[in-house]
Amino acid sequence: MDLNSVKGLLAENFVKLLMNNNKFNATKPDKDYGVDLKINRVLKTTTTFGKTRYIDDEIILDIQIKCTTESKIRRAKSGLGWSFKVEAKTYEDLLRRRDENHLIKLILIVFILPSGDDDWLRVLDEKIELSKYAYWYYPSDDDTLDKLNGLNEKSRIRIELLNENKITANFLTVFETIYADRIQN
User: Which pick of 41, 58, 62, 91 has the fewest CB atoms within 10 Å?
Assistant: First the structure.
């Protein structure tokens, strides 16, 4: 298997593990329309008969996953995170899903591995380590389709992966940030 395939699978399976640990379902769509995983919370409910049941939440978040290595990425000029290039079509997908009142929103998760493939995964006596970082990206109000003028879908747009959007073990906070207008706590 080539290293790009390995990187992609490591990143995708990391996201699945993270979602499962946060009590989310993570499913891979049958067709690839720019979405790698669909996630939704699993909610605990009590039946009329007093039994506990688990049901899928109706709020779904679509995720596109990219993976790179530290040698292929650089710190952002702002000093607030990483600078990462995405294809114009990916950028457009993210903006359209933000702006066109889609019920299902789309975020990008970028996994950054160490430069040497021997350092990506380590199995130790007491733990398993997958190195190094993962960040989520959702376009800000400053991101507009105007950036696409004069480009084609394969052109690359530079986005900033903010330090504050580093993924931690608690993914629920990301979900609640994206869907703050729809989630009742």
Answer: 58
